[in-house]
Amino acid sequence: MASPLGRLSEEARREVMRLARPFRLRRGEVLFYPQDPAHAVYLVEEGLIRLFLLGRKDEEATLALLGPGGLLGEAAFFGGTYGAYAEPLVYTEGVSFSGRELALLMNKSPEVARLFLELGLERLKEAERRLAEQRLLPVFARLARLLLRHFPDGEVPLSHQDLAALVGATRETVTKLLGEWALKGILELGYRKVQVVDKEALARMLEEV
């Protein structure tokens, strides 16, 4: 996926990249915690980051799943704390910006301001879509959509527990569904890995919802 910074003019892109600092994270490294002071805004260029909260009994509630082009940490524009956990599910890299410096550039450049507002709006729409799916779709449909939307090459380097957390279901339910789909030849199962081999079959399931 092309970087959303490519939507900018060459001059505006140079100004933005002058502020950029690269970041690289391995799976399991936490980018930020809820109580961390919000200083930086992050733009994902490769990989997958999950934003989530923990309940009183350590139940996890996934707020967003951000792949290439995803923006997170917008609280840095306003101060305060991040308010959520951000953790990569796979090797992830991208660029970060000082919230204060980027805000100053946005004040000077309507073009840059428009881009980052669009990225923030895209994440808001994604959160609304996710909330609607959690309330309206059965687990099998949420799982099928997750596999098709976020893993277009069919390779899913996640455990059953990871997938369960992402679709708001129990590990047992997800394991049962994956096993049924494997028997039908829709996918292949491995250690911490799922390989989708029949995307059309998953798409047909969604047509029936």
UniProtKB/TrEMBL annotation:
Q: Where in the numbering of this chain does the Cyclic nucleotide-binding domain appear?
A: 4-78
Checking CDD domains in the record gives: CAP_ED
Under the heading InterPro entries, the entry gives: cNMP-bd_dom, cNMP-bd_dom_sf, Env_Response_Regulators, HTH_CRP, RmlC-like_jellyroll, WH_DNA-bd_sf
User: Its domain of life?
Assistant: Bacteria
Listed A to Z, the keywords are: DNA-binding, Transcription, Transcription regulation
Q: Which Pfam families match?
A: cNMP_binding, HTH_Crp_2
In this protein, which residues make up the domain named HTH crp-type? 137-200
Q: Which GO terms describe its cellular component?
A: cytosol
What GO terms are given for molecular function? DNA binding; DNA-binding transcription factor activity
Query: What Gene3D superfamilies does the record point to?
Result: Jelly Rolls (2.60.120.10)
- By what name is this protein known? Crp/Fnr family transcriptional regulator
Q: Which organism is it from?
A: Thermus filiformis
**Lineage in the entry?**
Bacteria, Thermotogati, Deinococcota, Deinococci, Thermales
